Amino acid sequence: MPEFSYVHSRGWIEVVVGSMFSGKTEELIRRLRRAEFARLQIQVFKPIIDKRYNDMAVTSHDLTKIDSLPINDAEEIWNHLKPGTKVVGIDEGQFFSNNLVQVAQDLAERGLRVIIAGLDTDWQGKPFEPMPTLMAIAESVTKQHAVCVVCGSPASRTQRTAGGDSKVLVGTHDAYEARCRQHFKPTVDTPTLDWKLQREAQFEA
Q1: How far from chain centre, in Å, is Cα 27?
Q2: Which of 14, 27, 92, 177 is the catalytic position?
């Protein structure tokens, strides 16, 4: 679904969700770059715990990146919001607490376009708040799909392959695979492919 194009005086919320390796961050960056091309001032935020590829920039698995500000809590956005900002991008929304919902609502009420990307389900296949609530209140929701590393079908689940059973584990190909409903297991499972082969399979699809 294309992003909304309301007049600038009205705000709204866009949510981009999907499994790991489904292109959520790439889509977030694409929309933010388009806003920049339209000469709109943007600001980008990410959770401070996400240091997988770059401490500061929001970075996709294919290493596309955009400058961002790491924060601990969504409320910190208010401390850094610039008067001329028209578009706010937020990556890895699932790593923020539920107050991200109200912050997004308030930003939209102030006339800003808010774009949030994140996992809609966790490694056990359960809804990963606050993303499901954000999906419910958003004007636009886009669900991305990856490629199942077992069968090549569209993948909507994130399979954990290492790292124990904690709810939050910031990782990439070293700890997760994309899988379809049929091949997903809500447990830590043995990796299907070497991560380099997995990555090649996904980009060739």
Answers
A1: 9
A2: 92
